[in-house]
Amino acid sequence: MDRDERGNTGRPGRAAAPDLTLADVARHAGVSPMTVSNVINGRPGVRPATRQRVLEAVAATGYRVNEVARALAGGRSRMLSVFTPQLNRPYAAEVVQGAAQAAEELRYDLVVVMRSGGGGADLSLMARLSAGALLIQPSAGDWPRRAELPPHLVSVDGPGERVLGTDNAGGARQATAHLLALGHTRIGLITGLLSEPQGPQTGRDDAAERLRGYGDTLREAGLDPERYVRHGDYTQESGARAARELLALSPPPTALFAAGDAMALGALHAAQDLGFRVPQDLSVVGFDDLPIAAAARPALTTVRQPLRRMGEVAVQLLVELAEGGAPRPPLPFPTELVIRESSGPAPSGAPGRHRRG
């Protein structure tokens, strides 16, 4: 073995285990000690699922190798980590799929860590074993300290040293202009502003930019951009709640633009429960183009973000950085309006509801 087999848990609230060995970790993971050694030393040739199991066993047992960082400095790791919150999983899954495809093509292993705000296992060893890390929707306080992370970081939709994002304002303009072209003048917006503070201090501006794109487009059309705005947090429940508030207004909007597909789906279901037909009485448009958008009934018109492509580019950037390059992050990715069944012409006459028989 390249390293001393003995480790130390060093975990608060637990007695130290100075005699913990690679064999103990191997038994916990159900693999051989050589496999554990290969994973700890960052060697290729271990299946991703096996590597993930070993790293989880390392975290669970509290195994420590003091020489990890120094050893990795002398050799190149071919492992990348992805850290993502447990919120908005469909969004993260799309990014991860793109990242996994790129990692496979570049012959790197990818380890995905779902990290909730409540903390959990000590993941610093896993992070230090990686050549780089992709952070998906990082939030202040939810992530390992910078000193515990790999030297190279790329983030998607959040703060970071190298950030990948989309043209959020442009996408919102596309959605709003589409509804205006269909004859709608009472267009409601459900923002994602309740999900996290926006601005330079957090590095997040997706919800604020989508609100700006919507507002600018309505103002250019001579319409009030403030009356039909409610706020959500990108969850289906918040979309349903905001839709019920908007549809209770007099007169209600004839179209809803939700700044995330999950919120749009919640709005669509809430409207149907209230007796509104989509799109005959009410048009609904989302943002993201997650798989749930095409599967909705009616299928959801939405603004497509190239989420898989963003995952691919993130991994390509990380590999170039790990191999000594100095790449420049790309400009914001363009969006695309995908027109499906949930948007249609504005209803004529007084607003009303279709009562189910």
Order of secondary-structure elements:
HHHHEHEHEEEHEHEHEHEHEHE
The named CATH superfamily of the domain at 168-305 and 334-338: Response regulator
**Class per helix and strand makeup:** alpha/beta
Radius of gyration based on Cα positions: 24 Å
The CATH topology of the domain at 168-305 and 334-338 corresponds to Rossmann fold
Oligomer, anyone? single chain
Main-sheet strand order equals: 7-6-8-9-10-11
Highest CATH level, the class of the domain at 168-305 and 334-338: Alpha Beta
Please tell me about this protein's structure.
By secondary structure, this protein is of the alpha/beta class. Among the domains are: 1-74, 434 Repressor (Amino-terminal Domain) (Orthogonal Bundle), CATH 1.10.260.40; 168-305 and 334-338, Response regulator (Rossmann fold). 37% of the residues lie in helices and 13% in strands. It contains twelve helices and eleven strands. It has helices at 22-29, 33-40, 48-61, 68-73, 89-105, 124-128, 168-181, 206-220, 236-247, 261-273, 291-295, 307-322; strands spanning 79-84, 109-114, 132-136, 153-156, 163-164, 187-191, 229-231, 255-258, 283-288, 301-304, 336-338. The strands form two sheets. Strands 7-6-8-9-10-11 form a six-stranded mixed beta sheet, with helices on both faces. Helix 11 links the parallel strand 9 and strand 10. Helix 1 (22-29) packs across helix 2, helix 5 (89-105) crosses helix 12 (307-322) and helix 9 packs across helix 10 (261-273). The chain is elongated.
